[in-house]
Amino acid sequence: MEQMLSGAIAAGWGIAGLFFCRFWRRTGDRFFLWFALSFWLEAVNRIALGLLVAAQEDSPLIYGLRVVSYGFILYAIWYKNRPRS
């Protein structure tokens, strides 16, 4: 049951990534691209958590992927709001 729920969550992350990818293709704004990459990385994170038997929520690999994913979001927000010279 846990693997099935993990797969459903991964599918949701993947669909959210496709949603942002569609906006990126339509507008060309990198903000949406970084968000799409972040959501896809979260989907990979969930898949790895579901497939790896020894993986825990606090294992360095899983936690590291999550930190990189949230870093993409923070970078997108910073890049969008940086002062233009």
UniProtKB/TrEMBL annotation:
InterPro entries assigned: DUF5985 (IPR046027)
Protein name: Uncharacterized protein
Pfam families membership: DUF5985
Organism: Ramlibacter ginsenosidimutans
Biological classification of the source: Bacteria, Pseudomonadati, Pseudomonadota, Betaproteobacteria, Burkholderiales
Keyword terms: Membrane, Transmembrane, Transmembrane helix
TM ranges: 6-24, 31-55, 61-79
